[in-house]
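This section describes the prediction task in plain terms. A model, or a person checking by hand, is given the sequence of a single protein chain and must write out its three-dimensional structure as a string of tokens. No templates, partner chains or ligands are provided. The sample shown here is typical of the held-out split.
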Amino acid sequence: MPDLATKSKNWLTLSISLVLIVALAAGAYLWHSRASAAKLTNKDPVVLADFTNTTSDSVFDDALKRALAIQLEQSPLLNVISDERVGGVLKLMNRSGNERLSPDIAREVCLRSNSKAYLTGSIAHIGSHYSIGLKAVNCQNGDALASTEAEAENRDAVLRALGEAGGRLREKLGESISSVQKNNKPLDQVTTSSLEALKSFSQGLRAQYASDYDAAFRFYRRAVELDPNFARAYAALGTYYLTHNQASLSAANYKKAFDLRDRVTERERFYIEAGYYQNVTGELERARQVYLQWVQSYPSDDIPQGNLGVIDSSLGRFEASLAATLKAQEIVPDSSIGYGNLIEGYLALNRFDDASAAYKQAVNRNLDSPFLRLTRYLLAFLQSDSAAMQDQFNWAAGKEFVEDMFLSAQADTEAFYGHLAKSRDLSQRAADSALRAGSRETAAMWTITQALREAELGNEARARQSAAAALALTPGRDVELLAALVYSRVADAAPAQKIIDKLDRDHPVDTLIQSYWLPALRASLELHHGKPTLAIDLLQSASLYELGTPAQFQYGTLYPVYLRGLAYLKAGQGPQAVAEFRKILKHRGVVLNFCTYPLAYVGLARAYALSSDKPRARGAYQAFLALWKNADPNIRIFQEADFESSNLH
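The expected answer:
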């Protein structure tokens, strides 16, 4: 039996052991807690601050932040919030949308956007070398979650060193080594090896998300001048030209990006391929599949959801379009483009009160852009709010690359009410404005759109003249397409058929050219050839997408529906014609301020008269004449409708 001293010694040993065990357990728990705290998931938004640059080389100011963003965006784990969302939060803070994010401002943006962390970076010049530091900070308590450093032996090695540091930071934030290795292309291979080009591209994005699109364009153009192999910058130029009605230049830049897509990240590959199929080959269903793959791979990205909404709208699937647009807005709630798309979505479904509420929300969030203003103009038109329309029109006056859009929109409005002389003048002013800004293709689009108005309202000589003027400015794809429509509507078969054959040959897989425009163009020619039954048969292939909103217009013209109604009239089938013209009138928020809407009343009146339904015919004529109560008296369709109404006994 042990003595008391032995017992005491054993108890002391046991006590020390227990203390050590407890200490080790506590240490292990503390280490586990801190390690767990450092873990991020793709449901944890992250804000990227601007780099602290203590070198004398200003190129690092923007280039390194963009490079790090591209590196981190390769990760399926990290959810770096977009510059657009950051810009929206900054505006809510009453700051400029393109203000640089110091660590303090980044933390406030992080808190306001309900993000988990913000990332800071720094670069310093040490002798001939460069020291790079990265740190992730919990924006709730300011604790560091992870940090890493790297050294570059010279300026040319900075991007490579930054990429390596970014990979290590991803690991420390919880991404598996295998995932980092799989999704970690070197920065100088997936972006550009030119720091100057990367800086210019970054400045372009900063300007774009501050709604300074012209400055953004200049930066993007400079980026590809500095590096002719900068794929992502070409794609940005493609988007810019697309939104400025320059389809040919847009397609050329998207194609260049597509050809260079082996030099991009997986995320950017989705962007470039989808944009190419959507805007160059016109394969909308194929583009849609790429966007769906993008959503599956990066569910926190708003761009694929937003563009799914655009594609579904183009195809006339308005409920699906609105659903996708709402998902995009949920991801990035402070986007002026997102709100513009949302307003358009509500308009297409005739939900005008919801559109008004959406615009008020955008204003309350301090959002502004030409696109948002244009949707407000169209909403005001549908609500007969001439004061609000004038406000938007006045805002656009004198703004390069902006006022021309509003001048053309107002030209549509004047033609809608039969004010053809005013429409003609506004259209010329729109074209002149575009030419002053250096955009011949945009000027041609405004000119050919006026030619189409002239054709539909019965001024065939003016229509031919304007079509020739538009083609002389530039024979771009969309200009040629609308010229074919003008020629087919004024029975100039030879030039129309020549363009139709070219469109068919050059765009064999374009969804809307093959299944919307070519059936409409061919049917229009057959109407003038006195073959309405053949026209009806040709338009059958357009029935799937006939409600869509093709990229050539801000609105849906419903041309296949309109031409089918005219064909039924010529074929003596009144009830069938009634159904087509009523379809146009039912989709008020799709047709917007295009002239096929008031002309549908004339078609409807004639269809009712053909069906011996004189009361309804009289009502349709009266509806048209009420819209055109102050119309130019010499317009042929106006004179015909007035005469037919007076003689309806």
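For orientation: Confidence is low (pLDDT under 50) at residues 1-37.
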